[in-house]
Structure formats: C-alpha cells, structure tokens
Amino acid sequence: MKSKIDPTLFGLCLGIVLYGIVFQLVLLFFSREVSYSAGLWIGIALAVAGSIHMWWSLNRGLDQAAKGAARTVGANSLIRYFVLVIVMAVLIYTDFANPIFAFCGYMGMKMSAYMNPWMRKVSSRVFRI
After folding, report:
1. Which end of the chain, C or N, has fewer beta carbons within 10 A?
2. What is the pTM of this model?
3. CB 12 within 8 A of CB 86
4. How far does the chain reach from its first CA to its final CA, in angstroms?
5. How many other C-beta atoms lie within 10 A of the C-beta of residue 113?
6. Is pLDDT of 117 > 70?
7. Are 112 and 122 in contact (CB under 8 A)?
C-alpha cells in the first residue's frame, strides 16, 4: 500500500530544510565552529519532528469530539514543548552543540510557515495538484 504524504506537511518540512541550508551557508561564511552547525541541525531536526508530530496530533484530534479533541491536541502540544525543553537543557549543560543555534534551527518551523505561499507552489508541482 502506497502511503500519501500530505502536501502541506511536505511543504512545511521542505521549507524547514531549505531554511537550514541557507542558514548553514550564512553561518559558514562567518564562523567555522562545529558546535554552531551541530546546534543548528539539531534544531532543524527538532523542527521537522515537531511539524510531523503536530500534523499527526491535529489529524488525530480532528477525528474526536470537541472536548476530547481539545484535550488531545493540548496534551500533544505539551509533549512537544517538553521534548524541546529537555533537548535544550541537555545542550545547555553539555558542550556538544550550541543551544542558541539549536533555537535558531527550531525557528525554521516559523520561517517555513511564513514561506508557505512559495512552498505551496513547489509542493503543488511535486504532487501535481
């Protein structure tokens, strides 16, 4: 069975990754610090995972009654934020990656949402909508 990818989710994830590539190129122009790049891509991975989880939880919540949907979507939002806080805390207390750039990478989700009109054109060409 072939599973269909949601075009909106595809556009959002594509925008996050493109944001990460552009940010990485700018970052390489100014600094060659490996921890900055590691933090950026950890943030990008969190943004993509958060987007997929948000899409999944919204689809699951919309199949329920109003009261159950609000509870499900709210609980899943708390899970996403809890994971983000845990990862940021680990990055703050270790020298593995820079937490500031991890946050910048996570903000790729916001930037991708702002770039939605352009990503919709790209995903419509990919999915032939």
Report:
1. N
2. 0.86
3. no
4. 21
5. 14
6. yes
7. no
